[in-house]
Each structure stands twice: as C-alpha cells, then as structure tokens.
C-alpha cells in the first residue's frame, strides 16, 4: 500500500510540473507574438503580407521604367531574370523576370545605346547566343570565331540584323554621327554571363600576359596599361582623337559576313490580312532565299539554341489573329504605334493589356495570343522566337475551320448547319 501511495504521489507531482512548464511556454510565446505583432490564426506558421501583382506582368515589361546602366560611351537597359530579387526595380519587373525564367524561355532582352564614336568593348558571352536588330545609326561589327581565328568585320545600318554565336569575341563600334540603338535578344533565361576583353586582360597576371602576347619590352610594357576607374563596357575616351590616328572599317567577303549578318529590311515581305512580316530565319533547303540569305540560314541552324527574328507591322486598327507556336517561346519589343495584346493560358485563364513604344512582351510556347493595333498609326514590333529551326504555328482560323462541322456542333451545342456561316478552309 505504501509503495502504491508513493508511486501515485510521484505521478501527481510529475504531471503538475509538466502542466506548469507548458503554461510558461505558452505565456512566453503569446507575449512574443504580441511584441512582434504576429497574430495567432491557428496556422502552423504565419504568412507574410504579399503584394498582389497583376498577372499581365508575366507577359509585359515596361522597359522604360527599368534601371539605366550608364557608361562613358552609352547605356543599357534590361528585361531579364535576376538571382538577387533586390536588383529588380519593382514587383512588376520581378514578375516578368520570374516568368521568363520559370518558363525556361531561353530569352533575355536588352537595349544598347552607343554614342557617336563609342565602342561596345570586345567581349563574349559564356551562356548565350546574341541576336540584334539595329533600330538607329550605323555601326562597324567585328567577330572572332573559334579555332581558325577567322576575323570577320562588316558594316550595318538601321533595319539590319546581327548574330554572335556563344563564346565568339565580338565588338560594336558606332561609326556614324548619331547614336546607335540596338535591340538585343540573348538565348538564356538565367543571368547573362559576359567577359569584356579589358577585364580579361587586367585579371591575367602580368607575367602570364607578357608571355602570351610577347610585346616589345615584355612585362614592363604590360605594366604601362592602367585599368580605368569607370566600367568600360561602352567605351568613349575624351581624348579619342589623340589615341586613334588611323581607323579603317574593313568589310569582309560576303561568305563570311552573312554568317553573322542579315539584311532584314531588304528581305521579302510576307503579307497577311492586316499586316506584313519580314523574317530572319532558317528555311529548310533555303526555300525562298537568295544565295547570301542561305548562308545566314545555315549559320543559324548550325549553332545550338539560336533564335528566329522578325519584324511585324500591323496596320492601323487591324488584327494579328489569335495563334500559338508549337516549338518556340516568343518575345517582342514595340518600336512604334500602340496596341493590345491578349493571352490565353492552358488553364483557360485569360488576360489582355495595352502596349506602347518601349514595352517588351513575352508569350510562352503553346499559349494562344493575339496582337491588335489600336492607334491611327501602324503597330510595329521586332519579335524573336526561341528556335533555330522552322517556326511551327497554328492560327485560330485554321484550327477552327479545319475541325469537322459536326464536331463543332456537338462541342458548342449548336446546329450543324449554323457552322456554314464560317468560311471553310480551302482544300489543298
């Protein structure tokens, strides 16, 4: 009996101590929650306040509101993904960056402005091909290819396209009196990895640079080079006329130039109801291309993860009808005019939004989308598609008209004869 009472007393004391400890923990936790402003709503962990961002910004970037990166010879603006979310200027910009990354788009966009006589320093990209469209100005381009050390140089004017395969050293020199403005697409949805030649030079030990370059004076000559305080990504020294006495802008043979160049403004026009396309793209067997255009076509197809570029003009108040692409994401930049874009996601969720000069748009592969001009002037864009093969597209009128009328009658619960009101697809 005594043993029983002793055990009972021990149990009571243990239980009392346990209840006391739990009470103290609860009181302490409640006080902490009050001090920090956390509300106990029964959830396992509190949810931070989240700003609601309009879903349209998954497909729209107001580039004019983004940060301008300035250099002695010009400036760059980006519509891109950033690993550090603090580098975004707004929640809307972050939504776009996350969208192109989440969709594995293989696309980044930037505008490059180079002042007269300015130079985009020789550089290369570790993780992307680069495609560009010259919107304004005149430039001299240089490309150094791998292995055979072939150096290709050429001149480019507004309306023409440039192409730099991944890891080829290249430069852009403004040789005109006005600013050059390039619209650039890079084939990565990650952060672009770039190295400029001057940074590579100054990061190389002096003795190693001397042994590699073998200058007169050896390492002592190498030591006369001084790294500039300002980033020289776009270079324009104030004493340029003293530094350069004899500049020549050589044009390489066409068989070399057209590997990296395409005369988009001079290419064939493809008309559709409501507008015009012009294409810088790969064509199987070079169909519809002249001899120099075939060189560019094969160059695109030869390299991995290249892009198809196009200009699209939609006449005032006309429509680029709903369609989707089987094999490519699409990104574009509004050059002139104003319009409306619409997107239908796989879930059936839709969004539409207005677009204007300087806006960047993005349509993931397989999403149905349309563009409509809503101004008195034409809507004009440069577009890029994430394929170096032929673009595969299906338009709404094609898949709707191509579906048997009795299938449509069953689907829409509408009499079969009613579908005769839609013009049928022409038999081929």
UniProtKB/TrEMBL annotation:
Task: Supply the SMART domains for this chain.
Answer: Cupin_1
Q: Which InterPro entries does the UniProt entry name for this protein? A: CLLAC, Cupin_1, Dynactin-associated, RmlC-like_jellyroll, RmlC_Cupin_sf
Q: Which segments constitute the Cupin type-1 domain?
A: 92-242, 282-420
Origin superkingdom:
Eukaryota
Signal peptide segment:
none
Q: Give one Pfam family.
A: Cupin_1
One cellular component term from this protein's GO annotations in UniProt: Golgi apparatus
Q: What is this protein called?
A: Cupin type-1 domain-containing protein
